[in-house]
Write a structure and sequence with these properties.
This protein has 77 residues and is α+β, with helices and mostly antiparallel strands. The protein contains 2 helices and 4 strands. It has a 4-stranded mixed sheet with strand order 1-2-4-3, with helices on one face.
Length: 77
């Protein structure tokens, strides 16, 4: 199985837009593909992990990148 990596730049977007855009980007992806989100919304630190749990995706990584955070999500079934 080939895993594809995708990116979403959500810098400057405020709640709930980073999660809404992530949901839309994840829909056409294959199970196991990853989406890397770059976000600077303070609410994303709560919203993104909660979205993953609710939608059945895996939050693979969360790290700081200056004033922003990088979230890596693996699409679930």
């Amino acid at each position: 199985m080939i895993v594809m990596k995708h990116k979403l730049d959500a810098i400057g977007l405020l709640c709930p837009l980073p999660v809404l855009k992530a949901r839309k980007r994840l829909q056409p992806l294959a199970t196991g593909d990853t989406l890397e989100i770059l976000a600077d919304d303070p609410a994303a630190i709560v919203d993104v992990p909660h979205f993953c749990v609710e939608a059945g995706h895996e939050l693979v990584e969360l790290r700081d990148d200056g004033a922003a955070q990088i979230y890596v999500i693996r699409k679930g079934r």
